[in-house]
Amino acid sequence: MSAGVAANGEQPIISVRNLHKWYSGVHALKGVSLDFKRNEAVGLVGDNGAGKSTLISILAGLHPKDEGEIFVEGRPAEINKPRDAMNLGIETIYQYNSMVPNMSIARNMFIGREPMKAAFMGVGLLDEARMRAESVAAIANVDLHLRSPDALVGELSGGQRQGVAIARAMHFKSKVMILDEPTNHLSVKETTKVIGFVKSLKEQNVTGIFISHNMHHVFACCDRVVAMALGKVVLDKPISETSIEEVHDVL
Amino acid sequence: MRRLIKISLQKPELAAALLLLCLIIFFQVMSQGVFLSLANMRGVFGLMPEMALVAIGVTLLMICGEFDLSVGSVFALSPMAMAVLMTMGWGFWPAMLTGLLVCAAIGFINGWLTIKFAIPSFITTLGMLFMARSLTIVISGGFPPRLKADEIPMWLFVEFVGPGNLFRASFLWFVGIAVLVALLLSKTNFGNWVRATGGFLPAANAMGIPSSKVKIACFMICSVLAGLAGTIQVLRLGSPLPSIGEGLELAAVAAAVIGGTSLLGGIGSITGGIIGAILIRVIDNGMVLSQVNSNWFKFAIGALTILAVVGNSWLRKRGRAMKVETV
């Protein structure tokens, strides 16, 4: 298959071709090929073990792929570690929180990407004032209102944590945001907020990949739905051309 | 104000600091004023840096989520290596630095084995405890070599300095290193990574922190500090005994835990570890002055460890439950 250019001639932001992954003998991903268009919100659904988590952990750099190719904005990309993905503009918000509970919001916002006043051989003095100011701004930008950037993440509710994770991803100017089961364990009100957020990604020129078990959540905020089963893509349609029933049937 | 109380109640070293204050007052009364006298303080400050340096390293490593049981053996191995090299004609500085390099290597091996084979550091360093102790005895050849005091700049390590000769030079080393490590942990990106690695490893990895390197670095810092502490003790004693530092690994863990460091990683502070180490010294010294049978010393340390942890979790719970404005 040719890499990169979709039928209508527009270049996808991410393309994967013939992606394979084995986990200690289990063939978790069996030749997946997918295109993610710019500014599109894609819902990725499938049962446990369908391969959706494997796919996104490859894109996020958590696990290396065994076979296949990844193209980001048309160029071949090597994603071997989380930093590689981040440098390509791919931010991931994980199902388990990608936050350290006993650290403050400001510290969590900048884990691994701390602004520094001075540094020597990669170790340096944190610019704490800037960390505080920028986290307050970033959090306000996702319409979340927290009293202090010094509060511990462990003291926040599930939804607030998700909000901080989203604020972090937005702050680092991501092009693609992967949300791994972001609505799990959230209250109804918080879920509505996350869904609204996924909808709004388009306006901010961000491609969203939204992984969920809940078909209603996917249909509420995505442009396209991709269903996976047993390590393969079994359905890939615009939301307008399919229904929850059809997706359920192929799973 | 309530906010301030809430924050300080959740500080992990608070319980230990309060206990320390109570004990100082208690021993001052029990010893009829001898405890805080200049002569006694000289003794306390003279010995304290040795254990406190070990506690600093162990605390840092525990915050990173790992454990080092080999510090007591490393404490003996480093000065022994130095002394043996000096009897072979090496100068003091190259011999001492080589001793510390040996420690760095041991720290590296501890960390590398733990991460490479994904085994608990409890096991790796337990093995290292025996191996390093055995090496110490082997290289000493059974007879501890004499240190040639005239070749060693004693003034730089163990001689008394300061007003009223209150401190040994080792105290200044301790203060300098304590400030440095505390700053490293609280004010640098490395410190941020240490806390994240120990606090919640999956998140640290997902955010692209090189957590394996961070852990190995902490193992190495811990070992080097233990070696330095052992060297200081040997310079004070004048001869490298192969048996020094036995049991120190557990005392250092006790110090860290008394100071509020969590066994699970992520929580703790260098200040806490130091307060813990001071507490142990104060009890040791205070009991002698109060003419308590010194066989009760270990009992007291044990009771204190449990008391401090229980006290800490109670204070923290109270702190968390305290109602302030909503977050």
What does this structure look like?
The complex is a heterodimer of chains A (251) and B (327). With 251 residues, chain A is of the alpha/beta class. Chain A folds into two domains: 1-89 and 174-251, 3-Layer(aba) Sandwich (Rossmann fold); 101-172, no CATH class. In chain A, 29% of the residues lie in helices and 28% in strands. Chain A is built from eight helices and twelve strands. Chain A has helices at residues 52-59, 82-87, 105-109, 128-141, 158-171, 188-200, 215-221, 244-250, and strands at 14-23, 26-36, 41-46, 67-72, 75-76, 90-93, 116-120, 123-126, 176-180, 207-211, 224-229, 232-238. In chain A, the strands form three sheets. A six-stranded mixed β-sheet of chain A has the order 6-9-10-3-11-12, sandwiched between helices. A four-stranded antiparallel β-sheet of chain A has the order 2-1-4-5, with helices on one face. A two-stranded antiparallel sheet of chain A has the order 7-8. In chain A, a hairpin with a 2-residue loop joins β11 (224-229) and β12 (232-238). In chain A, α4 packs across α5 and α6 runs parallel beside α7 (215-221). In chain A, 43% of the residues are buried. Chain B has 327 residues and is mainly alpha-helical. Chain B has a two-stranded antiparallel ribbon with strand order 1-2. The chains are: A alpha/beta (251), B mainly alpha (327). Chains A and B meet through α2 and β8 of A and α8 and α9 of B.
